[in-house]
Amino acid sequence: MRARFLGLGFALAVGVGFGCLANPCADGICACEDADYCDLDCERDGCEVDCASIDACDIECLDDCTVDCESLTNCDAVCGANCLFECDSSSTCAVSCGAGCEVECANASSCDAVVGEGSKVSCAQFGSCEVECLGSCELDCGQGGCELSCADGADPEDCGDGRWVCAQDC
Q1: Distance CA 72, CA 94 (A)
Q2: For the segment 2-11, what is each residue's pLDDT rounded down to a tens digit?
Q3: How far is the C-alpha of 93 from the C-alpha of 112, rounded, in Å?
Q4: What is the pLDDT of residues 68-101, one digit of tens each?
Q5: Which of 5, 27, 125, 151 is at 20 to 30 A from 15, Cα to Cα?
Q6: Is residue 90 assigned to a domain?
Q7: Which structural domain, as residue segments, surrounds residue 122?
């Protein structure tokens, strides 16, 4: 069951489902609630995407996006540079983003992130947290147990306070 809403507000529903608003998010604000699955594609900078209380949400956006996923089975996002990705109370949180991103993952079974230069990732109350840095980055993993991979196979540096960094000073 899947619902997808087009940019002009027309609904295209397959099965039963409701919730995805504005694809390709013509006004830059996308929301998805009370559906089984949403596939949101925001083709502009600065989109605000909100997915809550659904099974799965797949999101693609350009630069300067804000993505908020809450109470999902799966949240998967791909965005450009300078994005904020928040995933809370979800089974699986996965994000791939460019430079200058901020990723916050909490209360999740699995948090996976691939981030660009100058990004920051925070994992709290998780089953697993795996981060791949494609440049300099910081991982805050206060509870321990995170896995951080640095570009070119370099070793991450333990800052001693729950933070780990790649290609930068603590």
Answers
A1: 12
A2: 232 222 222 2
A3: 6
A4: 999 999 999 999 999 999 999 999 999 999 999 9
A5: 27
A6: yes
A7: 80-170
Which CA distances in Å does 156 have to 48, 59, 86, 166, 170?
A: 32, 29, 24, 5, 11
CA 93 to chain centre: 6
Q: How far does Cα 27 stand from its chain's mean position?
A: 21
Number of domains present in the structure of the chain: 1
Give strand ranges (E) for 23-162. 29-33, 37-42, 48-52, 56-61, 66-70, 74-79, 84-88, 92-97, 102-115, 119-133, 137-140, 147-149, 157-158
- Side-chain-side CA neighbours of 105 within 13 Å: the count stands at 34
Residue 62 lies in a domain: no
Query: What's the whole-model pTM score?
Result: 0.83
SS3 (DSSP) at 80: coil
Average pLDDT over residues 27-40: 77
